TrEMBL record:
The gene is mug. It is an enzyme of class 3 (hydrolase). GO terms for molecular function: DNA binding; pyrimidine-specific mismatch base pair DNA N-glycosylase activity; uracil DNA N-glycosylase activity. Its EC number is 3.2.2.28. Residues 18-181 form the Uracil-DNA glycosylase-like domain. This is G/U mismatch-specific DNA glycosylase. It comes from Streptomyces ferrugineus. Keywords: Activator, Chromatin regulator, DNA damage, DNA repair, Glycosidase, Hydrolase, Isopeptide bond, Transcription, Transcription regulation, Ubl conjugation. InterPro entries: MUG/TDG (IPR015637), Uracil-DNA_glycosylase-like (IPR005122), Uracil-DNA_glycosylase-like_sf (IPR036895). The keyword Hydrolase applies. Pfam families: UDG (PF03167). Transmembrane segments: none annotated.
Length: 181
C-alpha cells in the first residue's frame, strides 16, 4: 500500500466508508468508526498498526492473513464489517456521546435488517456508549437485537496494548466457536 501524505489523510476526515455486508452473515464485526487511513483507502481497519486482520486469521475466522484491500472476501466466509459511527475521524475521542447513541440506534436497525447470527462490537467503550450499558464487559452480552446475539470484543487498535494479538485471538476464537454452533 502506498504511503499517504498528511494532506491525503486530512482530506479523508468525515468521509464515509461503505460497509461490507450481506444478509445471513454469521458475524457482523462492528468497529467504532473509520480512521483516516480507512477513509482514505476505503478499506476497513487499514491502519498498519491495527491488529484486526492478523487476529481474524489467528482466531481461525479466515484461513490466511488477509489484507484490508481484500475485505470483500470476508463475505465468502459469512463475515462482514460495519461501524458504530459512520464518519471518519483521526481519533475516536472526536466523537460525541450523541453520535455514539445515534450510531447505536442506526446499528440496531441495520442488524434487524441484515439478521447476522452475531454482532461483534470491537471495543467495549464504544459498545457501552452506543448502547448505554456502562457495565458491559468483553464477551457475550445478554442483549439481543431481534434474533442476533451480541459479543463485545477487544479493540484491535495498536493503542489497546494490554490485549496482545494472542489474547485477542483467544477471545475472537471464542466467538468463532459460538458462531459456528
Amino acid at each position: 500500500m502506498a504511503r499517504l501524505t498528511r494532506a491525503e489523510l486530512e482530506a479523508a476526515h468525515d468521509r464515509l466508508v461503505p460497509d461490507v455486508v450481506a444478509d445471513g452473515l454469521h458475524v457482523l464485526f462492528c468497529g467504532i468508526n473509520p480512521g483516516l487511513m480507512t477513509a482514505a483507502t476505503g478499506h476497513h481497519f487499514a491502519r498498519p498498526g491495527n491488529r484486526f486482520w492478523p487476529v481474524l486469521h489467528l482466531s481461525g475466522f479466515t484461513p490466511r492473513l488477509m489484507k484490508p484491500s481484500e475485505q470483500g472476501e470476508l463475505l465468502s466466509y459469512r463475515l462482514g464489517i460495519t461501524n458504530v459511527v459512520a464518519r471518519a475521524t483521526a481519533r475516536a475521542d472526536e466523537l460525541s456521546a450523541e453520535e455514539y447513541r445515534e450510531g447505536g440506534r442506526l446499528l440496531a436497525a441495520k442488524v434487524t435488517r441484515l439478521r447476522p447470527r452475531w454482532l461483534a462490537v470491537v471495543g467495549v467503550t464504544a459498545y457501552r456508549a452506543a448502547f448505554e450499558d456502562r457495565k458491559a464487559q468483553v464477551g457475550p452480552q445478554e442483549r439481543t437485537i431481534g434474533d442476533t446475539r451480541v459479543w463485545v470484543l477487544p479493540n484491535p487498535s495498536g493503542l489497546n496494548a494490554h490485549w496482545t494479538a494472542a489474547t485477542m485471538a483467544e477471545e475472537y476464537g471464542r466467538l468463532r466457536v459460538a458462531a459456528e454452533a
